[in-house]
Amino acid sequence: MPGGRLTQEDRRLIATWLKDGLGYAEIARRLGRPTSTISREVARNSGHSGYRAEEANRVTGERARRRKPRPRTVPVIENGYGRDPEAVRAFETGFAEMIVATGLPRMTARVLACLSVSDEGVLTAAELAQRLQVSPASISNAVAYLEAQAMLKRERDGRREQYVIDEEMPQRVWDESVRSNQEWVKVARQGAEVLGTSTPAGARMDDLSRFHARINEIMLDDRVAVYAGDALTALAALLHAGRALSVSALATALEWPSERVSAALRVAEAHPHIAGPVKVVAGGGEYRAVPLVERLTARQLAALGS
Hints:
Blueprint: H1 8-19, H2 24-31, H3 35-45, E1 46-47, E2 50-51, H4 53-67, H5 85-101, H6 106-117, E3 122-124, H7 125-132, H8 136-148, E4 153-157, E5 160-164, H9 169-195, H10 200-241, E6 245-246, H11 247-254, H12 258-270, E7 278-283, E8 286-291, H13 298-303
Antiparallel strand pairs: 1-2, 3-5, 4-5, 6-8, 7-8
């Protein structure tokens, strides 16, 4: 069959025609095959006595059996919590499929899901490759994508590099989304100016910039709502301390990651209204909680001795 594998009859004919002195091109024409197929067949399957059909069939069969892949077994990861490994694996697969549906590449989604369902949220490239039964190169490409999207961090553990998903990951992803939307607003506004808002293309760009600006407003408002509690806790800690504190000192006292403290302080600084009469003041790498004197008139401040 042209284009398919050579059959035993094909090899018998090749051997016969070679003995008759026919060239590769003529044999290929008669069999309806590319000349390269015939030359490769003869080169690979010729023995000391030349090309023989029976020997060629035997060697080809042995080569095919050696190439037959072994069935892959997915390792069962012990979790120490008495969970059903099959149920965990099924959830991980479904979770990855959901992530793929949002637009991420499949391997990237599998790496993210695998890290997410690990209790420590920390795995090395070798561990990911073993769990997912893929090559280290596939892991490397997926990690690079996730890192660019702020979905994981790289850390060194001695000589090993490990990949981390921590509790600050949603905040980083949120911040990256806000930054991305800001770029959309900026570029779309430039397009509107270049094209002219009175033109159809310019009006389209103007609408696009307004849309992303509105999305950013909503996201920022939602972030304030989510992190308002943390901001108030950080302010309460500063008030109780009665002195300026660094992020690391606050993180130690509150038993929070430094990134969480920084996020809370950023919200408190950017949105002073959430803290009522108190605001955060930064200076010299430290933060203080001070009265929001802007709420008082000059006469009121004077009466209070300020």
